[in-house]
C-alpha cells in the first residue's frame, strides 16, 4: 500500500492532510497508521480539516470504509470540526460514495477540484468537438512534422503527450518517429476511448493512454525526454500549473514542446475586416469562458517563466494553398459551433456570436475562393529543462 501522507497547517484555521499514491489495503488493519495520523490531525485541527485525496491514484473499498469510519469517529470525538474531502475524477466511484457521506454528516463537504478548474470540459467532449480535433490534426501534421525535428524530437525517445485528445498526434509520432515509449494523457474518457480503439484496430504497440489530470499527473518525475502539450495550455486559465507538471515529468536535458493558437493574427483576404472582427469576437467569447485562443505568442514568456532554457519558437502555417481548402473550411465551420458553445457556457452576449458567425463564414468563403488567401497560424514553442535547478 505505497501511500504517502503529508500534514500541514494551511492557515485560516484549516489544516490539510494529503494522501498521495495508492491506497489498496487488503484488510482494515493495514490502514492503522493512516487512521492514526488522520485522528491526530483531527485532534489538533481547528475549524476545518481538509483531507486532500486529489493525488491518489488508486483507492479500494477497504480504504474507503476506513475513511468512512474516521468520519464517524470525528463526529463523536470532535463534533465542532468540519471535514472537507478534496477529490479528483481520477477515481470516479469515490466521488459518488463521498457524496453519500456528505449527505449523512452535515459537517462533511466534498470538493471535486478538477470539475471547478475546467469549466469548458463539456464542450471539449461534445461530438462536434471530436470532429474538430480529427480534422485539425489531419491538417496540421504535414506542417508540424519538420518543426518537431527542429524542436528536438527524434527516434528512440520517451515521449509524453499531455492533453492528447483523440491521440491522432501519437499515432503519427509512433509511425514517423518510433519512440521508445509513448504515453498520451487526457481528462476526457470519450476521447481516450476513441484513441484506445484506434490503437487496438491498427494493432499499434508502444502507445499507452492514461486517464489523468494535466494539473496533477500520475507520471513519475524526470521520466520523459520529450513532453508535448498541443493546443491545450490555451484552454486552462492557470497554464503555469500545467507547465509545472510538464517540467516535473521531463528529465533534465529533455524538452517541453507546446503549441497554441494566435486568433488575433488569423489572415484572410479578401473580406479581411469582417474576418478580423469575427475572430476578435471569438477571442472575446472564449476569454469569457476562461480560454485564451491568443496564447501562441506568449509561449516564450511562459516557458522562460517555467525555468526552461534554449527556447525555440516556430510558426506553423496552415493555409488554403498548402493544405486542402475544403478541410480548412470545414474546420472553420466547426469552430462556429465551438464558439457558440463556449459563449453559451460563459453566458456571453449573443450579438458577439452573430459577429463570430459572420466573420468565420467570410473566412470560409475566402478559403474556398480561387483568388483568396487564408492562413491559420499556430505557434510552436519548446524549451530545455536545465540540468541544475537553482
Ligand atoms: C483543444 S484539445 C487538444 C487535443 C490534442 N492535443 C490536439 O492537438 O488535438 C484539449 C484537450 O485537453 C483535454 N483536457 C482538458 N482538461 C484536461 C485536464 N485537466 N487534464 C488532461 N487533459 C485535459 C481535453 O479533453 C482535450 O482533449
Structure described in brief:
With 390 residues, the protein is of the alpha/beta class.
Q: Major β-sheet, in short? A: 8 strands, mixed
Which spans of ≥5 residues are poorly predicted at pLDDT below 50? none
How helical, in percent, are the residues? 40-55%
Strand element count? 14
Structural classification: alpha/beta
Report how far apart the termini are.
Answer: 34 Å
- What count of helical segments does DSSP give? 13
Q: Give Rg in angstroms.
A: 23 Å
Bound molecules: S-adenosylmethionine
* Morphology call: globular
Oligomeric state of this protein = single chain
How does this model look, in words?
45% of the residues lie in helices and 25% in strands. With 390 residues, the chain is α/β, with parallel strands linked by helices. Strands 7, 8, 9, 10, 11, 12, 13 and 14 form an eight-stranded mixed β-sheet that branches. Strands 1, 2, 3, 4, 5 and 6 form a six-stranded mixed β-sheet that branches. The chain starts with a strand and ends in a 6-residue tail after the last strand. S-adenosylmethionine (SAM) binds next to helix 5, helix 6 and strand 8.
Amino acid at each position: 500500500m505505497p501511500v504517502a501522507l503529508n500534514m500541514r497547517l494551511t492557515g485560516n484555521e484549516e489544516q490539510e492532510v494529503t494522501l498521495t499514491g495508492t491506497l489498496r489495503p487488503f484488510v482494515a488493519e493495514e490502514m492503522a497508521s493512516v487512521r492514526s495520523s488522520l485522528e491526530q490531525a483531527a485532534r489538533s485541527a481547528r475549524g476545518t480539516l481538509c483531507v486532500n485525496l486529489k493525488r491518489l491514484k488508486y483507492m479500494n473499498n477497504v480504504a474507503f470504509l476506513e475513511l468512512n469510519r474516521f468520519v464517524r469517529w470525528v463526529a463523536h470525538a470532535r463534533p465542532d470540526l468540519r471535514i472537507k474531502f478534496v477529490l479528483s475524477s481520477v477515481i470516479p466511484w469515490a466521488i459518488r460514495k463521498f457524496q453519500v457521506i456528505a449527505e449523512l454528516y452535515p459537517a462533511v463537504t466534498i470538493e471535486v477540484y478538477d470539475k471547478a478548474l475546467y469549466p469548458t470540459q463539456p464542450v471539449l467532449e461534445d461530438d462536434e468537438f471530436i470532429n474538430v480535433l480529427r480534422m485539425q490534426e489531419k491538417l496540421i501534421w504535414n506542417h508540424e512534422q519538420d518543426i518537431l525535428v527542429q524542436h528536438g524530437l527524434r527516434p528512440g525517445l520517451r515521449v509524453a503527450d499531455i492533453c492528447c485528445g483523440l491521440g491522432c498526434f501519437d499515432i503519427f509520432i509512433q509511425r514517423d518517429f518510433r519512440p521508445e515509449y509513448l504515453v498520451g494523457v487526457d481528462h476526457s474518457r470519450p476521447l481516450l476511448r476513441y484513441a484506445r480503439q484506434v490503437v487496438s484496430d491498427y494493432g499499434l504497440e508502444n502507445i499507452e493512454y492514461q486517464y489523468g489530470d494535466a494539473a496533477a499527473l500520475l507520471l513519475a518525475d524526470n521520466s520523459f525526454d520529450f513532453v508535448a502539450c498541443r493546443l491545450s495550455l490555451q484552454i486552462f486559465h492557470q497554464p503555469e500549473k500545467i507547465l509545472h507538471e510538464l517540467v516535473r515529468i521531463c528529465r533534465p536535458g529533455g524538452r517541453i514542446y507546446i503549441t497554441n493558437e494566435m486568433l488575433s493574427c488569423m489572415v484572410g483576404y479578401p473580406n479581411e475586416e469582417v474576418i478580423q472582427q469575427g475572430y476578435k469576437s471569438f477571442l472575446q467569447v472564449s476569454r469569457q469562458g476562461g480560454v485564451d485562443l491568443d496564447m501562441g505568442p506568449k509561449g516564450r514568456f511562459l516557458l522562460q517563466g517555467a525555468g526552461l532554457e534554449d527556447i525555440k519558437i516556430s510558426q506553423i502555417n496552415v493555409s488554403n494553398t498548402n493544405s486542402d481548402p475544403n478541410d480548412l473550411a470545414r474546420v472553420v465551420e466547426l469552430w462556429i459551433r465551438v464558439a457558440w458553445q463556449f459563449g453559451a457556457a460563459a453566458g456571453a452576449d449573443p450579438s458577439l456570436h452573430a459577429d463570430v458567425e459572420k466573420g468565420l463564414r467570410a473566412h470560409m468563403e475566402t478559403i474556398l475562393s480561387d483568388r483568396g488567401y487564408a492562413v491559420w497560424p499556430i505557434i510552436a514553442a519548446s524549451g530545455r529543462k536545465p540540468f541544475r535547478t537553482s
